[in-house]
Amino acid sequence: MLPARLGMRLRNLGVIAVLAGLLVSAAACSEPPTEYKATVYIFGTLVDFTISGAREEDAREAVGAVEREFQRMHTDWHAWKPGELTRLNQAIHDGRAMRVSPFLLPLLVQARSLSAASDNLFNPAIGALIAAWGFHNDELPSGVLPDREEISRLAALHPTMADVEISGDMVSSRNRAVQFDFGAFAKGAALDRAMEILRAHGIENAIINAGGDLNTLGKAGRGSGGAAKADGRPWHIGIRAPAGRGVIAAVDLAENENLYTSGNYERYRESEGIRYSHIIDPRDGMPVRHIVSASVIDMNGAVADAAATALSVAGPRDWHRIALKMGIKFALLVDENGTVYLNPEMKARVEFAKGQPPAIVVSPPL
Ligand code: AMP
Ligand code: MG
């Protein structure tokens, strides 16, 4: 929670503060906030929890339970560190079927349907391409770029989630080039599960913010006397601007809405002055260039996360079709010139930062 005076000042200025976590709890408050805050690490990101209106010990216990779940995800959903997913990738490479745990199986099933809905632009079967570009590493890759022929060869093997057969808990692939990498939607899936855990612990109002990608539960508010009590305000959130330039716009999130942004400036490699993004177009195996960032609001974090990546790949000309196919209702894209592309429903709810954007292209409704 921001100090009251500062909160008021930011509001008056119409400025959206986005210092660490892009979240602004907007209203000034007269009573002491009963907010519990904690930070947990997963998938290379610090995740900030803000829980309002709950008893501190309940909140602490709930976050502890989420942290244990996150640790398991970190191992068993990881695309390149040894765990269940890398064992499954090895089995597929070897042409074997493997029994998969109930921890991983739902992720595969969800990945398969989201991938189909996105026309395979969200394609978590292209792990080999992502590795070839050097992104299966905690450090950003540098040095010689991968060989273009090798990239074309890997793309031509055409691994997709449609190759994957799931029979009970046995998983196999008709195409041995399939290698899972859930990096494009694991954060969303993880935060969805985290919210389920908080709910099961009786938490009614919370926000979980993973570097600007976030899930909300209930409404923003301040508790009093230990009772869960939200005061009915929406969560007031900044939408990340590309390249660490603060926020491009602010939006009020309704109850349980989630916001995810995918950007080709987030992780990349550079060679001869050209940036090569970690978001790969599965059709040719090349990093995405035209779109700088794509933000999506959805009630499901995994859907929003997968869609943000898919819309980044789709680009200014195709994003609307893919958003329609994926059932997305609110999307906003920014290209390399700062031009914003968005649907009218999104336009109606965003408030742009001063001087932003230089140009807007409004699509037909979603
Ligand atoms: P995000 O930041 O959510 O867009 O996720 C980017 C991550 O998803 C990358 O670091 C890769 O691990 C993975 N990825 C890259 N391109 C794709 C794609 N077209 N489909 C699915 N996953 C991808
Ligand atoms: Mg994503």
Q: How would you characterize the overall build of this protein?
A:
With 366 residues, the protein is an alpha+beta fold. Helices cover 32% and strands 25% of the residues. It has nine helices and 20 strands. It has a nine-stranded mixed β-sheet with strand order 2-3-7-8-11-16-17-18-20. The chain is globular and about 55 Å long. The model is unreliable at 1-32 and 223-229 (pLDDT under 50). Adenosine monophosphate (AMP) is lined by residues 121-124, 130, 135, 181, 183-184, 262, 266-267, 278-280, 282, 305, 308-309, 313.
Measured between the Cα atoms of the first and last residue, the distance is 34 Å
Secondary structure: helix percent: 25-40%
Q: Indicate the mean pLDDT.
A: 87
Note the total helix count.
9
Q: Which ranges are low-confidence, i.e. pLDDT below 50, for 5 or more consecutive residues?
A: 1-32, 223-229
Q: In total, how many beta strands?
A: 20
Strand order of the largest sheet: 2-3-7-8-11-16-17-18-20
Q: What is the structural class?
A: alpha+beta
- Which kinds of small molecule does this entry bind, naming each only once? adenosine monophosphate, magnesium ion
Shape: globular
| Major sheet summary line | 9 strands, mixed
Q: What share of the residues does DSSP label as strand, in percent?
A: 25-35%
- What is the radius of gyration? 21 Å
Series of secondary-structure elements, N-terminal to C-terminal: HEEEHHEHHHEEHEEEEEEEEEEHEEHEE
